[in-house]
What does this fold into?
Amino acid sequence: MGMNVAQKLIRSHLLEGEMIPGKDIALKIDQTLTQDATGTMAYLEFEAMGVPRVRTELSVAYIDHNTLQTGFENADDHRFIQSCAKKRGLRFSRPGNGICHQVHLERFGKPGKTLIGSDSHTPTGGGIGMLAMGAGGLDVAVAMGGGAYHITMPGVTLVRLTGALSPWVSAKDVILEVLRRLTVKGGVGRIIEYGGPGIASLTVPERATITNMGAELGATTSVFPSDDVTRAFLKAQNREADWTELLPDADAAYDDTVEIELSTLEPLAACPHMPDNIKSVREIGPIQVSQVCIGSCTNSSLQDLLKVAAILKNKTAHPDVSLSIAPGSKQVLTMLARCGALADLISSGARILEAACGPCIGMGQSPSSGGVSLRSFNRNFEGRSGTADAQVYLVSPETAAAAAITGVFTDPRELGDAPAIRLPEAYHIDDGMIELPASPEEAEGVEILYGPNIKPFPTSGPLPETIKAKTVLKVGDHITTDHIMPAGAKILPYRSNIPYLSKFCFAQCDPDFAEHCREAGRGIIIGGANYGQGSSREHAALVPLYLGIKAVVTKSFARIHCANLVNAGILPFTFTDAADYDKIDAGDELALENIRAAISKASPIWLKNITKNESYALSCELSQRQREILLAGGLLRFTRERG
Ligand code: MIC
Ligand code: SF4
It folds into this structure.
């Protein structure tokens, strides 16, 4: 039987395992990327591994998240990452050069290659036929050292596109429609592959919007074939030599199929506070808007911002709307400036931000109290914007720009003719902000520059025989990593200072969580379904580890967070019978007995509730390697022991 694109990418990188959905597989990783909010930890871990130089085809360290410098911390972290990159053989994308996913797509991504990145939106690279996946910092550090990346072989869902988008309807509306149908956990254990005659009408930036926000489905990744559209994009980036064709076989099979006729789509929005809470803009009606933010790795391409500039041309943002625009990269910003579109944006009153993540991660532009903010971003989790009671809607750049003019939610189709945008035959190429590493000889003399904000990170010891601990927290379904370890301008500067970060752990769910953990000495967390969705930040595992969390027992986990827990040495179990979740209360004394033996022999595991004198069967869907990692006390110890 023929193969689909996802299977071809996996087959060509398979180091261990069988390509049977659900089985553990090990993949060779060609490229890695990090950003600064997760990168400091990834490089500290890489240093702890003692590997002198990266062993990938290409590794890039980007600075794009922590760009607001209200103290020395972020600047010190940038300098630390820059010195690591220089010494260890990575390219360094300087602050101002753009958002990692946008720049990687423009300048480095290659069809047919594998990429892992310490950021959950790494699947953006799937827009040009890469197998690009988000991972925890330690997994990226291991891959930089030449190690394999271990995942569960996913099933492959085909999203078959037919027809073409109507005017004013865009790629963002396609992924919002997929989210509406599949929900934020519908992609778990799957790769979402796009195909069908409709894909020919989608440009690479449009495809990248779709694969980028596929992260919100919980999918392992999303991918488009590499075809003539991909070739044209790479040619315009002066990289035609990087193109290879990658198409599904004519008789390729898929585990399931979703059909979308593009012409039937209309402008959509993800309503507060989940990316799958989808309504049509029409249905939402003309509610008042106080802020519009355009940008983020989902919608900050030249194509997006040319459209926005055309919509805003000769208009002024509504007096009640604060409009900000963050271009995705220096390339995008330079080209907007050269063609005059930047002047149109500036004259409209848009507050032009640097080419970085900015408001998407709460680095500034927090909305007013209770404010309605329309954003072209990918996540609208409660509080993520920095304003606890803000109402954040995720929309296309077109819908965002329409509201910026009218001051209310507006279906952009009411604005008349849609702007006609032509993509350039050739992008402006200037890689001057990418610093090359030192040669192996020169590298010896390069010093790694640690700032005073960099503190040692916690590690766990070998797994004990028995764990007795209190339920220090019980939470419901869909807990995101933003709940576990919030981000934002005030906290992000401490991503290399776990003791300080620990004060904010779970603050939204229980403001005294850190205090309770300290009093209890050690603890177990009880969670609902899809626990740990969202970001790849391993801080959501390292901080709980620091606070003494030994196990997390849930109805189900999000993929990357579950792997991060194992890497940190925290036990991730699920209830065999989800109804047992209801039987445990916060404060209950729990015990896991003979747990070492159970993990090593893969024998049944029971959670004893000492307070209630009950026991519950637990499931442990871990690979043999993950069991060994847990026995060793985390991936770092495991890697050191195995060399
Ligand atoms: C995000 O969008 O939540 C982030 C910030 O990019 C994270 C990474 C991080 O927490 O640093 C992600 O998506 O992985
Ligand atoms: Fe940056 Fe936002 Fe993209 Fe995360 S989702 S990488 S914070 S732009």
Notes: The pocket of alpha-methylisocitric acid (ligand 1) is lined by residues 37-38, 65, 119-121, 134, 361, 487, 534-537 (CB under 6 Å). The chain has a mean pLDDT of 98.
